[in-house]
Write a structure and sequence with these properties.
By secondary structure, this protein is α/β, with parallel strands linked by helices. It has ten helices and nine strands. The two termini are about 15 Å apart.
Length: about 250
Amino acid sequence: MNTDSNNSNHEKRIAILIDGDNAQATLIDYIVVEAGRYGNATIRRVYGDWTTSNMKSWKDILNSYAFQPMQQFRYSVGKNATDSAMIIDAMDILHSEQVDAFCLVSSDSDYTRLATRIRESGKLVVGIGKKMTPRAFVSACDVFIYTENLEELEKQKKRAAARQQKAEKLSSADVDLVENIEQAIEMVGTDDEGWTRLSEVGTAVRRIDPGFDPRSYGAKQLATLVRNLKSSFELKKMSGKSSILIRSKSED
């Protein structure tokens, strides 16, 4: 990331459409962060038959991430009605010009033609799925992210958070705050040394948690709050400018 220029991606809008029958609810944090690299997720939907037990894991996280459940009954055994519902909605969104990009979360090859059609319309397509995803669907996307990589990242972060909480006696709320800020830094992107603008990170944190307010942690401003987390982050002013940069100490 070039910290001397504005990143136009953060002004764009992206639709996150998740095939709930074919994706992992446990990775929702990382799905939101990866999609957030390409725009503000103004449309967030999870598709599936919500009357079935296999959608329970999604029910538990919907409200936390402001995703809309899209009900699709299974009318026939062996037929995936979820695919059709998600494809129809995606085309409606495409023609309504509501977003600039799509994030399609699935490992199913049935979305190959949808991804191709969206790209033909000049929209960015980000795919997220398992390494078993057919090559045709992967190639139809502009960017494809494998969930196995996200799973490994989740394990690493959990281990790091546990070590940090034990060493510094942080509260659960502080651990969550540090994790949200680190995710926001990843969402915004950094330069080669790990620095990025604090103002952009603040915007990204509110995308992750719309209720975020430094005053909830006893700080008037984000910069003050981050300075209180000096074991996790460092700040510096840009040379000759008033902008403040932030870097995670995990980059060291």
